[in-house]
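ok so heres the complex, two chains, lmk if somethin looks off
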Amino acid sequence: NAGVTQTPKFRVLKTGQSMTLLCAQDMNHEYMYWYRQDPGMGLRLIHYSVGEGTTAKGEVPDGYNVSRLKKQNFLLGLESAAPSQTSVYFCASSYSRLAGGGEQYFGPGTRLTVT
Amino acid sequence: AQKVTQAQTEISVVEKEDVTLDCVYETRDTTYYLFWYKQPPSGELVFLIRRNSFDEQNEISGRYSWNFQKSTSSFNFTITASQVVDSAVYFCALSEMNYGGATNKLIFGTGTLLAVQP
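and the predicted structre for the whole thing:
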């Protein structure tokens, strides 16, 4: 099993450009999440999904959109990148709590720089 | 509001010393989960432990141990006989419970950077 994978690993964007980050998991997890990690601030939840076709806002959703068209994939989009979106982005997935889950499994991260 | 506080920003120890990382949480829920994750210099996040609010037994796994005390809302992590490979950022996290259906959302502390010197 590959676990949780993220594409790309690194990206540099100019202000105003758009891009999509792809997250894929092969563990048949119901739930998926996107976080950003900034120095001194830990990880903050951007958006999450509790099942195929569903998405919801997290703590810091502004400037981002997401889609979950397939159970195994969770896409994070930046429509018009801003320097404040320079960060490391982590995707995670987990079983539902009813299935006895709780811990999240993380991808390797994507380092995004917006100039 | 739910919150996780890791007051220790950085800790530096010499190899073989014991070290305790503090975690204090706030929640109004009676049922919740607490977690510890490790982030080594390579950057990935590694799950270490999950503990639910009904289980206050301490846990030991090799050189790692965890002390959960509901009375003080703390979930502290101790590494015994630290090693250079323990150098990492350690995050404590709290899982939110929604009455409308649990989402497993995690609220992270800001992390503690542990540096173990040889």
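quick notes: Residues 31 and 50 of chain A are 4 Å apart (CA to CA). thats all i got rn
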